[in-house]
TrEMBL record:
It comes from Halolactibacillus alkaliphilus. This is Redox-sensing transcriptional repressor Rex. Residues 17-56 bind DNA. It is found in: Cytoplasm. Residues 80-179 form the CoA-binding domain. NAD(+) binds at residues 91-96. GO terms for biological process: negative regulation of DNA-templated transcription; response to redox state. The keyword Ribonucleoprotein does not apply. The lineage of its organism: Bacteria, Bacillati, Bacillota, Bacilli, Bacillales. One of its GO terms (cellular component) is cytoplasm. Modulates transcription in response to changes in cellular NADH/NAD(+) redox state.
Length: 210
């Protein structure tokens, strides 16, 4: 992802959104798209879209818009779409089980390859076609895995994160309420669903028109 170093983080975060929409357009046989059309679909204002796209060397032409195939080619390369990133999931509870059943590859080349749990009733079984191994054997299986999804109870999150890092994992999607500490070379994205829901409701009540 060397080329992505030059793209601002805020732009990089919107890439998957653009990618998904453009991929759908492409599947529908459309070869071009205007920034207005894009803007309405992805809910990003067209000035931001134009600025984002200028980082990719995609300069829309007036009255023509953007070339869908060119943009898709760029996004595929930038988002490493041609190379599957292997992901492990730790903690096959309610949320973890839902993720194992969710078809991530619909939109990108990310695949949960394996899952780990403590519960002897879950170990050795499968969920959504993904094998569940014992947490005690985690290190033996993580040889070719780059990222992990953490859906364990918060109390064990830090310890498991440390084991993941020691196994060479460089990205963690943390769904536990615990804030985890990792070395600088490891990226953690924290998604606390109850905080997100609370925050949505707060904004609905206090900023209904913004
Ligand atoms: P469930 O209803 O299946 O218990 P849950 O999401 O409500 O799901 P949690 O207590 O949040 O349950 O635990 C999530 C999952 O993490 C469970 O499957 C549990 O067995 C597993 N788990 C708990 N501790 C560990 C651990 N140290 N290592 C690996 N997995 C663990």
């Amino acid at each position: 992802m060397a080329s992505q170093n030059k793209i601002p983080q805020a732009t990089a975060k919107r890439l998957p959104l653009y990618y998904r929409f453009l991929n759908n357009l492409h599947l529908q046989g459309k070869s071009r798209v205007s920034s207005k059309e894009l803007s309405e679909a992805v809910k990003v204002d067209s000035a931001t879209i134009r600025r984002d796209f200028s980082y990719f060397g995609a300069l829309g032409k007036k009255g023509y818009g953007y070339n869908v195939e060119y943009l898709l080619g760029f996004f595929r390369k930038t988002l490493d779409q041609d190379e599957t990133t292997k992901v492990a999931l730790i903690g096959v509870g309610n949320l973890g089980t839902a993720f194992l059943h969710y078809n991530f590859t619909k939109n990108n080349n990310t695949k949960i390859e394996m899952a780990f749990d403590l519960d002897p009733n879950k170990i050795g079984t499968e969920a959504g076609g993904v094998k569940i191994y014992s947490i005690d054997e985690m290190e033996d299986h993580l040889t070719d895995v780059q990222a992990a999804i953490l859906t364990v109870p918060g109390a064990v999150a830090q310890n498991i994160a440390e084991r993941l890092v020691a196994s060479g994992i460089t990205g963690i999607l943390n769904f536990t309420p615990a804030r985890i500490t990792v070395p600088d070379n490891v990226r953690v994205h924290h998604i606390d669903l109850s905080v997100e829901l609370q925050s949505l409701i707060y904004f609905m009540k206090h900023y209904p028109n913004d």
